[in-house]
């Protein structure tokens, strides 16, 4: 497969068992389109103007700087909900103080187009989005591979995907987490606050991905082998293994799992594993994984045994993250005359479309 970045640079475990599908995927404005889904409807009145903009070949930061310079606004006064890919066509919403309305109306740029505007009461804040809709075009797809992709999409529609952080999280060379680890261990000093935080966030993300990959691997072993063999390989009690094998979903929930209602809700301990695993299969709730830190809820029992290896208390702030997500509104279209396979889907905020593609084409 040819691509701009290695989608699985850290050798994360896939949960689907098909062989690699050799196609062409490149992140560019024609083959990768991201459309932000706002968290709420905008009011139509207020001291901020919400601009729906379309950008190409620019990061969100670059686009915001161009807009700020053009209209004479301070960068910090522009609100946005999330950062969007540079190597894509992206549509998102930003907020600008109403005093710049005249300059907004006359703004032009070859890589940024203002599609519509509406007034709103508040500045848009980070995280104020429901999710994102993606359009992706894969090229050099044979008829046989198109069928394999369709089969993979069918399983993803039923079971979802591991909610790994994408390669974008780890920097251009995929090694920002190594600098974060060095900062945590005291072997690297980084005086620039924003860079230090970026490296630490990358290390937290790496630990989460590593934990999730291990759990996917264990789940695959549970599905593939008899209880006695699993006891020897993983060190789990045979009664527990039988419980886990009975779970319909390919990601096996463990006793003591910290769950969250899906797509949002409170975090709680899974008391009745059989009941909660059934609700997980029905997309009503999902297990969560740890972004380590001093102030964060910790799982219990067997789930905590598999989590503690990745729990570094040296981070100030930790969090729980969905271990699994369910792509929604999945549609696909195979253009045999061009050997193109086009697909679209939505994901909740914080999830990566590149991980959907990685799971599909391995």
TrEMBL record:
Top-level class of the enzyme under EC nomenclature: isomerase
TRUD domain span: 160-325
Pfam families: TruD
GO (cellular component) term, any one: cytosol
GO molecular function: RNA binding; tRNA pseudouridine(13) synthase activity
Cited SUPFAM superfamilies: Pseudouridine synthase
EC number: 5.4.99.27
Active-site residues from the entry: 85
Catalytic activity as recorded in UniProt: uridine(13) in tRNA = pseudouridine(13) in tRNA
Keywords, sorted A to Z: Isomerase, tRNA processing
One GO term of the biological process aspect: tRNA pseudouridine synthesis
Family: Belongs to the pseudouridine synthase TruD family.
Function recorded in the entry: Responsible for synthesis of pseudouridine from uracil-13 in transfer RNAs.
Alphabetical list of PANTHER family matching this protein: TRNA PSEUDOURIDINE SYNTHASE D
Protein's name in the database: tRNA pseudouridine synthase D
Source organism (scientific name): Arcobacter nitrofigilis (strain ATCC 33309 / DSM 7299 / CCUG 15893 / LMG 7604 / NCTC 12251 / CI)
């Amino acid at each position: 497969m040819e691509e701009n970045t290695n989608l699985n640079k850290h050798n994360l475990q896939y949960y689907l068992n098909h062989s690699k599908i050799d196609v062409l995927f490149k992140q560019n404005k024609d083959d990768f389109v991201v459309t932000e889904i706002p968290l709420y409807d905008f009011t139509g009145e207020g001291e901020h103007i919400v601009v729906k903009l379309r950008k190409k070949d620019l990061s969100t930061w670059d686009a915001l700087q161009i807009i700020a310079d053009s209209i004479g606004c301070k960068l910090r006064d522009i609100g946005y909900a999330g950062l969007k890919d540079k190597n894509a066509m992206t549509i998102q919403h930003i907020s600008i103080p109403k005093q710049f309305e005249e300059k907004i109306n006359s703004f032009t740029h070859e890589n940024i187009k203002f599609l519509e505007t509406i007034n709103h009461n508040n500045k848009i804040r980070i995280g104020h989005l429901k999710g994102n809709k993606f359009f992706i075009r894969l090229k050099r797809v044979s008829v046989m591979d198109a069928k394999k992709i369709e089969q993979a999409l069918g399983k993803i529609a039923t079971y979802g995907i591991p909610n790994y952080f994408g390669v974008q999280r780890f920097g251009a060379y995929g090694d920002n987490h190594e600098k974060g680890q060095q900062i945590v261990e005291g072997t690297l000093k980084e005086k620039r606050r924003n860079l230090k935080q970026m490296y630490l966030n990358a290390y937290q993300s790496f630990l989460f991905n590593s934990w999730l990959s291990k759990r996917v691997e264990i789940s695959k072993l549970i599905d593939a082998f008899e209880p006695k063999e699993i006891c020897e390989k993983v060190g789990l009690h045979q009664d527990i293994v039988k419980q886990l094998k009975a779970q319909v979903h390919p990601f096996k929930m463990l006793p003591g799992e910290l769950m969250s209602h899906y797509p949002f809700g409170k975090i709680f301990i899974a008391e009745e594993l059989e009941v909660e695993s059934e609700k997980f299969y029905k997309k009503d709730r999902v297990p969560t994984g740890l972004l380590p830190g001093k102030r964060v809820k910790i799982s219990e029992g067997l789930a905590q045994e598999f989590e503690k290896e990745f729990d570094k208390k040296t981070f100030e702030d930790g969090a729980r993250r969905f271990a699994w997500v369910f792509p929604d509104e999945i549609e696909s279209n195979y253009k045999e005359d061009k050997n193109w396979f086009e697909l679209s889907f939505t994901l909740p905020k914080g999830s990566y479309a590149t991980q959907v593609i990685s799971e599909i084409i391995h």
